[in-house]
Design a protein that fits this description.
The chain has about 270 residues and is of the alpha+beta class. Helices cover about 15% and strands about 20% of the residues. Strands 1, 3, 4 and 5 form a four-stranded antiparallel beta sheet that branches. It has a four-stranded antiparallel beta sheet with strand order 7-8-9-10, with no helix packed on it. It has a two-stranded antiparallel sheet with strand order 2-6. The chain is globular, with a radius of gyration of 20 Å. The structure holds zinc ion (2 copies). This is DUF1963 domain-containing protein.
Length: about 270
């Protein structure tokens, strides 16, 4: 649970059931439109409008159950980092805007020894209120390792200058370091952050001051796009998770390399 009620902000509030219903209605409507029918029926439109006017603001004053965001095993993730004796990283977030987190969800990291986990709940506790942007569609992940390179402005000056000279903005056919060659867009573990929204700022541990490292990225599809597995149909939407960070940015979560007990921090870019 997140009991940090004072930080919760009443934006885009809805319920998990309403988000699932919204997705069902729009999925059915998309199929109907492809078959030449109308997009939304009057009944569906009325249902969506009714769900949108429910006032849920008071509910953010109560502790909010966290939403499961990712569950990653050491055996599946080549660059897995975590305390000795753990083989499972669970990423959860408090699914409403936090004033103390730049109006993003507050991220929690839990490392576990999966062999030591006893009986589990049949279903995770469901929050009574969430932001409509922060409920992931459950997916199975098939991790694929990609080499990344540091954001250009964080490279040594001479290297950054050589890249500037090498990049050719006039020639669209030639790949560009920042957009094409260094950083993978979308959801990922490890790698580097793309600081193009604000330029880089220091991510230092609140407890010990150590420079934090990127561990997990939640992406949005709309602005920078996302990579789509080559096995998928070319016209398949890459937006399988249906989370949106800000106006289509990414939420980068950093951990402290000095101690896994120190709190993570996030940056939206
Ligand atoms: Zn919270
Ligand atoms: Zn620290």
């Amino acid at each position: 649970m997140c009991d940090d009620a004072g930080a919760h902000e009443p934006y885009n509030l809805t319920t998990p059931a309403a988000v699932r219903r919204y997705r069902e209605i729009h999925a059915a409507a998309a199929i109907r439109r492809r078959a030449g029918g109308e997009y939304l029926t009057d009944e569906e439109r009325a249902g969506l409008e009714a769900a949108a006017v429910v006032d849920l603001d008071d509910l953010i004053e109560d502790p909010i159950p966290l939403i499961p965001v990712a569950q990653l095993y050491r055996r599946d993730v080549p660059d897995f980092v975590g305390p000795d004796g753990t083989d499972l990283l669970q990423v959860l977030w408090c699914p409403v805007d936090h004033a103390d987190r730049d109006y993003n969800p507050r991220v929690f990291l839990f490392w576990r020894d999966s062999a030591a986990i006893g009986p589990v709940l049949e279903a995770p506790p469901e929050p009574s209120v969430i932001s409509k942007l922060y409920l992931p569609v459950p997916c199975v992940v098939h991790p694929e390792q990609v080499r990344e390179y540091q954001y250009a402005d964080l490279l040594p000056d001479d290297l950054c200058e050589r890249l500037d000279e090498w990049d050719d903005d006039e020639d669209d056919d030639r790949p560009n370091y920042q957009e094409d060659l260094s950083l993978a867009p979308g959801w990922k573990v490890g790698g580097f952050a793309n600081w193009s929204l604000t330029d880089p700022y220091p991510m230092n541990c609140a407890v010990c001051g150590t420079t934090q490292k990127l561990i997990f990225t939640a992406g949005s599809v709309d602005s920078y796009g996302s990579w789509r597995p080559i096995e998928d149909a070319p016209d398949a939407s890459p937006d399988t998770v249906k989370v949106q960070i800000g106006r289509g940015y990414s939420l980068y979560t950093f951990y402290c390399p000095a101690s896994f007990d120190h709190p993570p921090a996030t940056a939206m870019q």
